[in-house]
Design brief:
The protein is α+β, with helices and mostly antiparallel strands and 222 residues long. Helix content is 15%, strand content 35%. It has three domains: 38 residues, no CATH class; 58 residues, no CATH class; 108 residues, Immunoglobulin-like.
């Protein structure tokens, strides 16, 4: 008798894990997701040590170690005041449970892909998997440009610089309004995915550091 077909609704952590587990058993599964693409949505994503062991069993140990954050401390805050309600020390999690606790698979920034009154990065989106050359496009206020360019930087997870460059205005930039820009960064490739940070920075030629402004986008470097 042939194995039944499986439909999985939702391509979140649970849905994709289930699909991978079925595949390892030779069972075909189809995943259905209404979002046009997968990416960081600003939610807090965490996996307990037992869930991490499950990921290891599915062959994801090395990838988790590369992309995930292991928090030394976990806190729960009041949603209005920011007051710390619960504080848990996670420093001995691996020793106690035999696996670490994953707090974030892709680090989230509150600003997402834009500072709506200054700059918007249209590509890549937060959490996107990218390859070299990394093409960056978006729009920024004219005040972000100098000589028609804004700065681009690509950092690794430890904030070491992997690539430097510029994005050029695609229209007249001496305006208070938004101006489209585009640029590309080439960076050294390495086997396996790794976390990175794309930095789009205002081109500030002055010595006044108070005028510096930047937007950071988390990405996965392939």
């Amino acid at each position: 008798m042939s194995a039944p077909g499986i439909a999985i609704i939702g391509a979140g952590i649970g849905g994709l894990t289930a699909a991978l587990a079925f595949a390892r058993q030779g069972i075909e599964a189809h995943v259905y997701e209404q979002a046009p693409q997968l990416g960081e949505v600003g939610a807090g994503l965490s996996l307990s040590p037992n869930a991490v062991k499950g990921m290891w069993f599915l062959g994801l140990k090395d990838r988790l170690a590369e992309l995930a954050d292991e928090p030394p401390v976990q806190v729960t805050r009041h949603y209005q005041t920011g007051e710390i309600l619960i504080r848990v020390d996670r420093g001995d999690t691996t020793e106690r449970y035999g696996a670490f606790e994953v707090e974030q698979l892709v680090q989230a920034w509150p600003s997402g892909n834009c500072q709506s009154d200054r700059v918007v990065v249209e590509a890549p989106l937060p959490g996107a998997a990218v390859r070299s050359p990394l093409v960056v496009s978006g729009r920024a206020r004219g005040g972000w440009f100098f000589e028609g360019e804004v700065w681009l930087r690509l950092l690794d997870r430890d904030r070491n610089v992997l690539a430097r460059g510029f994005a050029s205005a695609r229209a007249e930039w001496m305006t208070p309004g938004f101006v489209a820009f585009e640029g590309a960064l080439e960076y050294p490739r390495r086997s396996g995915p790794r976390r990175g940070i794309l930095v789009v920075r205002r081109n500030n030629p002055s010595d006044d550091r108070s005028l510096d402004q930047a937007l950071e986008i988390p990405v996965v470097l392939e």
